[in-house]
Design a protein that fits this description.
The structure holds two protein chains of two kinds. Chain A contains eleven helices and two strands, in the order ααααβααααβααα. Chain A has helices at residues 2-32, 39-59, 64-91, 100-121, 147-169, 171-181, 183-188, 193-219, 226-241, 246-267, 272-286, and strands spanning 126-127, 221-222. The longest helix of chain A has 31 residues, at 2-32. Chain B is an alpha/beta fold. Chain B folds into two domains: 1-87 and 178-263, P-loop containing nucleotide triphosphate hydrolases (Rossmann fold, 3-Layer(aba) Sandwich); 97-177, no CATH class. Chain B has a six-stranded mixed β-sheet with strand order 6-7-8-3-9-10, sandwiched between helices. In chain B, α3 (103-110) runs parallel beside α6 and α5 crosses α6 (162-175). The chains are: A mainly alpha, B alpha/beta. Chains A and B meet through α5, α6, α7 and α8 of A and α2, α3, α4 and α6 of B.
């Protein structure tokens, strides 16, 4: 039973990270109908920013909590400015082009950013400082759920709650929903659609950066390529839940995380990806719009 | 009507490839006035709305808006959201609400261009943001009461009846505090009862000083509401005047009924 619970928590942790990334995919898709393939790279850049800031600060002997906060804020701000800039450079000029053009532009951006970080940071795995220490109160159950997992889970839940409140109640959230439902009408009631799109990229990138920081301190190493697989997995999760739907992205991520975790635990870790992507194939065959696809759910 | 004009349009021309959809159109609306734009199907009425609200960029011509006591501003080349900010709001021939948002949210969205709060305010909820939100909420409720949708504010817009959706669209447009309200065939598809209610609503809004420019095919409604009427055919203005003048204008009768055949 302990083993089952351990796998359960490890699955939820994975799911949380996927969810933080998948939200960026699903929100951007909801607003401009684009699969932002460079989103995985934003997550990677978030992790690298946190890595650089944390390493420098620990050299100067900052206390751990201060390092976590400063590195987190730096990662969010830096990744958000990347997300914002990418939209302005690579997608905005193609707003009225055929749908395939921005998609290809996105793939180009992804390749560019990977290679840019490869050149700037080398291709080696770099050791990520351990930002989250074991909490003493977690000692008795440490064999089931680690302190890092707990931090990841709690952070994700808090972030999701804030995001939901923003989307549901704030004016910018209303503007985002309005834009996703009818872009022309949104501009006619006075919404600056370009600003709403920029905000979507900024929010999505911030979430990805938080994910990058968390997973890097969990795994303990990063390189320029981590964004690729994480991006693909998160994208899978978003499609699984119904792309364009915010609750769908979270649900899809959790299902994907749990599937991977149980497949690894009970079958073999070699089959982790096989199970994940088989699940995607099955969903696409039997419910192509995803679990919470458009018809029943609000998009953002 | 001698009061100062709010909207002035001069020489507005719109070409789609080789087709001239609007041809050197002049039009003006004074404050507090109800002006109707009529004409046979395909005359270019909706194109005219699309041109002045910034959805299309006109080939030629000028559009000016003058706030009461303020300076005249040009709307040429502005994006639709900027045009709305300057004070033009519109409804559509085929209703375009945000179907998956509640009735109240639809109206609140109209307040968006009159608010300042940004993302940090949404997260930290400082007093200013809270006051602003409270203010938005109150004005939106008031707007819904005015159009008679007060009890429906938590329903999804898509679940309202047809006539109610129309009124919601008007409420949303009013929420942007327009200098001039543009209504594109507000009575289209309405039953007689709903049309009578609509007429009452438009009169009520107008009594409060709101200037209105409407496109409409229901002649009874047009004749009873309008202070002045502009008639278009094939992208040109063929007549303008009071309802009485228009009713007796031979060019208008010709455009609607075709030429008389000599017996």
């Amino acid at each position: 039973m302990d083993y089952f619970i351990e796998l359960l928590f490890s699955g939820l942790t994975r799911g949380s990270i996927y969810a933080l990334i998948a939200l960026g995919y699903t929100m951007v898709y909801g607003i401009i109908g684009l699969i932002n393939f460079a989103h995985g790279e934003i997550y990677m850049i978030g992790a690298f920013t946190a890595f650089i800031v944390a390493t420098v600060l620990s050299i100067y002997g900052f206390p751990l909590l201060a390092i976590v906060i400063i590195a987190g804020v730096a990662a969010v701000v830096w990744a958000a400015s990347y997300g914002y800039t990418i939209e302005k450079i690579a997608y905005k000029p193609l707003r009225h082009a055929p749908r395939l053009s921005p998609l290809i532009s996105a793939i180009g951006m992804s390749i560019f950013l990977q290679n840019y970080v490869l050149l700037a940071q080398s291709s080696d795995f770099l050791p990520f400082p351990r930002l989250i220490r074991d909490f003493p109160f977690m000692e008795p159950i440490a064999h089931i759920i680690g302190s890092t997992d707990l931090v990841i889970l709690v952070t994700t839940v808090v972030v999701m709650v804030i995001l939901t409140l923003i989307i549901k109640f704030s004016m910018i959230g209303k503007a985002m929903r309005a834009t996703s439902q009818d872009r022309t009408m949104a501009t006619l009631v006075g919404i600056n659609v370009n600003r709403v799109i920029s905000m979507t990229f900024i929010i999505g990138s911030s979430l990805a950066a938080i994910g990058g920081l968390l997973i890097a301190s969990h795994i303990g190493q990063i390189n320029f390529y981590i964004g690729f697989l994480a991006g693909i997995k998160a994208f899978t999760a978003a499609v699984l839940g119904g792309i364009g739907s915010v609750p769908g992205a979270v649900l899809g991520s959790m299902i994907l995380g749990l599937t991977e975790s149980f497949a690894t635990g009970y079958v073999s870790s070699d089959y982790e990806d096989v199970f994940a992507f088989s699940l995607l194939v099955l969903i696409l065959i039997f419910k192509p719009s995803g679990l919470l696809g458009k018809a029943t759910n609000q998009k953002v | 009507m001698t009061s100062q004009p709010i909207l002035e349009v001069s020489g507005l021309t719109m070409d789609f490839g080789g087709i001239r959809a609007l041809n050197a159109l002049d039009l003006d609306v004074a404050s507090g006035e109800i002006v109707a734009l009529i004409g046979p199907n395909g005359a270019g009425k909706t194109t005219f709305f699309n041109c002045i609200t910034g959805i299309y960029t006109p080939t030629e011509g000028n559009v000016w808006l003058t706030p009461p006591g303020g300076k005249r501003v040009s709307l040429n080349g502005l994006k639709p959201n900027k045009v709305t900010e300057r004070g033009l709001a519109r409804t559509f021939q085929n209703i375009r609400l945000f179907p998956k948002m509640t009735v109240l949210e639809n109206v609140m969205i109209g307040r968006h261009c009159r608010t300042k709060a940004f993302i940090l305010g949404a997260i930290f909820r400082d007093p200013r943001t809270r006051r602003e939100e409270q203010d938005i909420l109150e004005t939106s409720y008031a707007m819904l009461e005015k159009v008679g949708l007060g009890e429906h504010c938590d329903e999804f817009a898509e679940n309202l009846s047809y006539g109610a959706q129309r009124r919601l669209e008007i409420a949303r447009a009013l929420a942007t505090e327009p200098l001039l309200l543009l209504l594109d065939e507000p009575a289209a598809g309405m039953n007689p009862q709903e049309t009578i209610e609509l007429e009452g609503l438009i009169k009520k809004i107008s009594r409060e000083g709101q200037a209105i420019l409407l496109i409409e095919h229901d002649m009874k409604l047009v004749m009873s509401l309008s202070d002045r009427i502009f008639v278009m055919d094939y992208g040109r203005k063929i007549a303008q005047g009071t309802p009485r003048e228009i009713r007796e204008n031979p060019a208008v009768i010709k455009a609607y009924l075709g030429e008389e055949v000599d017996a």
